[in-house]
Predict the structure.
Amino acid sequence: MSLSTNQYIKPLTTVRNSKGNLEIGGCDLVSLADKYGTPLYVIDEKTLRNICHDYKKAFENYPKIRMMYASKALCTSAVAKILDQEGFGFDTVSAGEIYTVYKSGVDMSKVLFNGNNKSYDELSLALELGVGRFSVDNFLELALLNQIASSQNKVADILLRITPGIECHTHEYIQTGHLDSKFGFDLTQIDDAIELILNEYKNLKLHGLHAHIGSQIFETGIYPDEIEILAKEISRIDRKYNLQLNEINIGGGLGVKYTEEDIPPSTFEIGKLIVDKLHDVIEKYNIPEPVVFLEPGRSIISTSGVTLYTVGSSKQVPHGTKYVAIDGGMADNPRPSMYQAKYSAEVANHKECDELKMVTIAGRFCESGDILIRNIELPQLDEGDILCVYNTGAYNYSMASNYNRVQKPAMVLVSDSESDIIINRESLDDIVAHDIIPDRLKL
Ligand code: LLP
């Protein structure tokens, strides 16, 4: 089986050009750093479209698949536009994400609203904008959504988010499907929820069940296990309530390759396992072929993104670590400090010497824990060198902060030797834009 895009560390168009500089999407990374400044997020359009094609190919034998990009991984208007063009719907978790995809011109019936504590205002906005599915997480939300739908004279189309009790071996902060999780209805609470929907909540229409196991998953077996649980529940609900649910949402989670040690499965392998299991449970439980939602986030956008930094100061601890500082760090990529995440990097500009040295890449933020990459072998790094950190498309910009009142970086989209800004760099005025000095302090 051929490799899928999530199994590569670098964007597919990455090459060294005749000047010895790294190039992505036909754009020289040193020229990009020069033109737009650093830190700079770069998204390679070809890699992004390629993983979309991989997913579509992986599921071509199951026409009832609905691909929903988990926009929490990276939600910008241009990225939404590309995924919309690729035929994807969107998994959203906030008014901000819903509004972003809405403003990008997405057909809102292809949008799903997830989350464990959606507010009254968010649910109202989602209903007004015509969001296609609500994955209802808890009893309060059932009541709230029914009330809002009734006030808008609408029926909200829902799935029930359930906790299937499957553990996966990923970082504990990004596991969600195990029993002691803040997300979703416990299996023992499903019937109470269904009875409320059938008997009281007339403005809710239940279509199916939703689960999500976790993120950066390498174990292939969890998807069949999850499908087994969801299908079994669907057939049990049919028998008990004579209620035919014809949708299941199996969440996202497929991993990516941050370093050589990471061996994520391919979309094709996962696709085959999922489709085979679906056919299996359809026969076993004698249920109609369900519409199946998939919500990949990281595996869609991670590989297409890199971050460019400029090298600044360095420090050799006597008989110890050699620290090399770059002009970004934990505010533009909090993943190393939050999850001990590891990344791969290369020097983007041409370096004469190719003898490698062990260094630690330190961020510029005022915190000892702001280390971007610990112990990586790179050529001698000098002030002004451009460092390219790979696989930063997912959960970097989307989790970025203004820690130390540092402006968030710009983002460019590269394709066929063209580069376009898709997020402007924040200015110092943006930093103070929301500050107010009360009049009484102005005396
Ligand atoms: N669906 C649901 C309901 C989710 O909660 C998530 C991710 C996804 C889909 C997408 O999962 P993905 O395909 O991206 O693995 N900030 C963490 C990841 C948090 C994931 C939260 N939920 C990180 O940087 O590793």
Q: What stands out?
A: The mean pLDDT is 96. Residues 30 and 227 are 47 Å apart (CA to CA). The chain has twelve helices and 21 strands. The longest helix spans residues 222-241.
